[in-house]
Specification:
By secondary structure, the chain is mainly α. It has four helices and no strands. The chain starts with 12 loop residues before the first helix and ends in a 10-residue tail after the last helix.
């Protein structure tokens, strides 16, 4: 069993660095979303996209060799489905977390009564 810096030795160095960075990025994203920061969902989308691409790049040859072996409830399938969910919900969640004043500041101001 390998751990520490060798935990992802099966992957290329760039993917290993990404997987180690996720140890910091995932809790940061969760904290931003829990604290209702509008940037949280966008960072979540970027992080999960990098994670899905990293996992697919590592597993690509195996998927091409035995594609049905990846249709199981662990591994690549749930990572991919979760990634799709995060990507599809990032913008609606960001809009929901953005204060109304910030959205209206982009448009023209309504005329004042008086």
């Amino acid at each position: 069993m390998k751990g520490g810096l060798d935990a992802y030795s099966y992957a290329p160095m760039l993917v290993q660095l990404l997987f180690h960075a996720l140890l910091l990025l995932d809790p940061l994203v969760a904290l931003l979303i829990i604290r209702a920061r509008p940037g949280g969902p966008l960072l979540a989308a970027a992080v999960v996209l990098a994670d899905v691409v990293g996992n697919w790049s590592v597993a690509w040859k195996a998927v091409m060799t035995h594609p049905t072996s990846f249709l199981r409830p662990v591994g690549l399938l749930p990572i991919t489905l979760f990634g799709i969910f995060v990507l599809l919900t990032a913008l609606p969640l960001r809009r929901a977390l953005t204060p109304v004043g910030d959205i209206n500041a982009c448009g023209s101001s309504p005329p004042r009564a008086g």
